[in-house]
Design brief:
With 68 residues, the protein is mostly beta strands. It has one domain (2-62). It is 7% helix and 41% strand. It is built from one helix and five strands. The chain has one helix at 18-22; strands spanning 2-7, 12-16, 35-39, 46-50, 56-62. It has a three-stranded mixed β-sheet, with no helix packed on it. Strands 2-3 form a two-stranded antiparallel sheet. Strand 4 (46-50) and strand 5 (56-62) form a beta hairpin. The longest helix is centred in the first third of the chain and has 5 residues, at 18-22. The chain starts with a strand and ends in a 6-residue tail after the last strand.
Length: 68
């Protein structure tokens, strides 16, 4: 499963579905724009998104730890 990583302070993300880039066009799933975007709440660490062709993509928040 593809993962898009979002920084700690961000809520909006954009990405490209890697499966769409390699998949062949079919009658019921024509090749189209592989880009996707969405939002991940600040309180959520993991979310899921589905591209236009139905491929499932995980969105994961990356917390940056600054040493004291």
């Amino acid at each position: 499963m593809q993962t898009i990583y979002v920084r700690d302070e961000e809520t909006h993300f954009e990405g490209v579905c890697e499966e769409c880039l390699t998949a062949q066009s079919t009658l019921y799933a024509p090749r189209g724009d592989p880009t996707l975007e969405g939002n991940l709440r600040r309180t959520a660490d993991v979310g899921f998104r589905t591209c236009r062709r139905g491929h499932r993509i995980r969105v994961r928040r990356v917390r940056v730890m600054i040493p004291a």
